[in-house]
Amino acid sequence: MPADEHLGEQFFHGTRHTIKPGTVMEGGRFTANQGAGQPCEHVYYSSRADIAAEFARYGNGPRNNIDAKPRIYQVEPVGEHEVDPDEDPSTKSYRSKQVRVVRKMPANELRNQHFVAFGR
Predict the structure, then answer these.
(1) How far apart are the C-alpha atoms of 39 and 117, rounded to whole Å?
(2) Which end of the chain is least crowded, N or C, by CB within 10 Å?
(3) Would you list the domain boundaries of the chain?
(4) pLDDT tens digits, one per residue of 55-81
(5) Maximum Cα–Cα distance for the chain, whole Å?
(6) Distance between CA 95 and CA 82 in Å, rounded?
């Protein structure tokens, strides 16, 4: 589906990696957040910040450092995106070949969404 179909909707990517705003994450170029850490074809994200927090919490950190701090970034798809076929529809998860990092989400904004992202 074209990215503009979700105009105004916010999307969130959870990871333990530090990513600068403006960075375009591209499938196949970046280490995967989950699993063995091999690059995967897509970048995954959700319109639910709590789902992104779960992916960050259980994701691999840089150089497989599981002690790296979980982070949530607001992202926007570059071009078309599709529903993640491997997740339950309730997760509102999507995937795209590329996403642009808009900003790192501050903890106070995440708390305003009625959940505490990382427990403290």
Answers:
(1) 25
(2) C
(3) 3-110
(4) 888 877 777 777 788 999 999 999 889
(5) 37
(6) 6
